[in-house]
Amino acid sequence: MIDNEWDFETLAIRTGHVRTNEGEHSEAIFPTSSFVFRSAAEAAARFGGSEPGNIYARFTNPTVRYFEDRLAALEGGEACVATSTGMSAILAVMLGLLKAGDHVVCSRAVFGTTTLLLQNIVGKFGVAFSFVDLTDMAGWEAALQPNTRLLFVETPANPLTEIVDIRELADLAHRNGSLLVVDNCFCTPALQRPLELGADIVVHSATKYLDGQGRALGGAVVGDKQRVGKEVYGVLRNGGVSMSPFNAWIFLKGLETLSLRMRAHCDNALQLAQWLEAHPAIERVHYPGLASHPQHALARRQQSGFGGIVSFIVNGGQDAAWQVIDATQMLSITANLGDTKTTITHPATTTHGRLTPEQKVQAGIADGLVRVSVGLESIRDIQRDLARGLVVA
């Protein structure tokens, strides 16, 4: 049986592993900076590209390649480039596909650092950016220009779990001759496959759910052989935003349990969201699995699960939000997400803290907003821990 006949769960465990002569059952780690050639002619052929093979671990490493092959199979892409972090994956896409004079349309509903990366770093090199509301399709269309090269979205978005219709946005991008890039961090391919819905490129922070236990930093870009396999890969080879072999091995182990973990995250998150929505100290809950979520019907069509991120606004603003966070005894106060351990943070002063007040308002980042990445502990224990700081006025 070949890989493309396997189901998702099998692909996540079996794809990409090429055993060495030692016959190891688990994937091997190749912690080497370089590789030895049998002759000068072989070295020249590999450096010249006429012969495949390992050259230098910055851009060719077997363990990293195992991870790339596996994630590409799970996302349904032709090629994958693994990077040092999720932010370096986004940077590699921008550097690989854009040039001075190009224009990008980006959702306002993205990770705060993504906004700053585009504006303050990529923007210095002659690339223009427009920011629009994620769910406003008319706004997306109005923002398009003849030189618009990319549309960039997170869906579901951080931290309000807003959702855009990927197929509709992809069609809009393609009619303009543009590409659609989707950050699939919140769903992973276990719940959503943007390439099948028309997106051109998918980016990941492997640090999150792909690992699942908060052990290592990493990122990935998935797409076709030309744009990702050559243009984005060129940034990796020459720019060195490389994933380490050890981290790649960690992510390989994470992918093996991805499907099981994501289903469990979804189950816990839905129960928590329903409990919070009924709590009198809560003003509003953001979770795609709730009927009250504006894109609930779209989430049911586009995703096979609603994800593990629940955000809610506490009555009383920042003081009340901090009270909830500080009263927890089990939850981890950290801005990371996608962990088996439940994490909690205050987006307005952490993940989106460097945005201007105006940008926060535009992105819906209220002072009373709390984001919870729902882990795999007992849901009753998670609820009990949050209840400590939820005071009814």
From TrEMBL:
Q: Name one GO cellular component term.
A: cytoplasm
Q: Name one GO biological process term.
A: 'de novo' L-methionine biosynthetic process
InterPro entries listed in its UniProt record: Cys/Met-Metab_PyrdxlP-dep_enz (IPR000277), Cys_met_metab_PP (IPR054542), O-succ-hSer_sulfhydrylase (IPR006234), PyrdxlP-dep_Trfase (IPR015424), PyrdxlP-dep_Trfase_major (IPR015421), PyrdxlP-dep_Trfase_small (IPR015422)
An MF annotation (GO) of this entry = pyridoxal phosphate binding
Record-linked PROSITE patterns? CYS_MET_METAB_PP (PS00868)
Identify which cofactors the protein needs according to its UniProt entry.
pyridoxal 5'-phosphate
**Alphabetically ordered keywords of this record:** Amino-acid biosynthesis, Lyase, Methionine biosynthesis, Pyridoxal phosphate, Transferase
Name the EC number(s).
2.5.1.-
Annotated Pfam families: Cys_Met_Meta_PP
As its record notes, the protein acts as a catalyst of: O-succinyl-L-homoserine + hydrogen sulfide = L-homocysteine + succinate
* Record's subunit section: Homotetramer.
Please give the HAMAP family that the UniProt record associates with this protein: MetZ
Entry similarity comment:
Belongs to the trans-sulfuration enzymes family. MetZ subfamily.
State the function annotated in the UniProt record: Catalyzes the formation of L-homocysteine from O-succinyl-L-homoserine (OSHS) and hydrogen sulfide.
Question: What name does UniProt use for this protein?
Answer: O-succinylhomoserine sulfhydrylase
What does UniProt list as this organism's lineage? Bacteria, Pseudomonadati, Pseudomonadota, Gammaproteobacteria, Thiotrichales
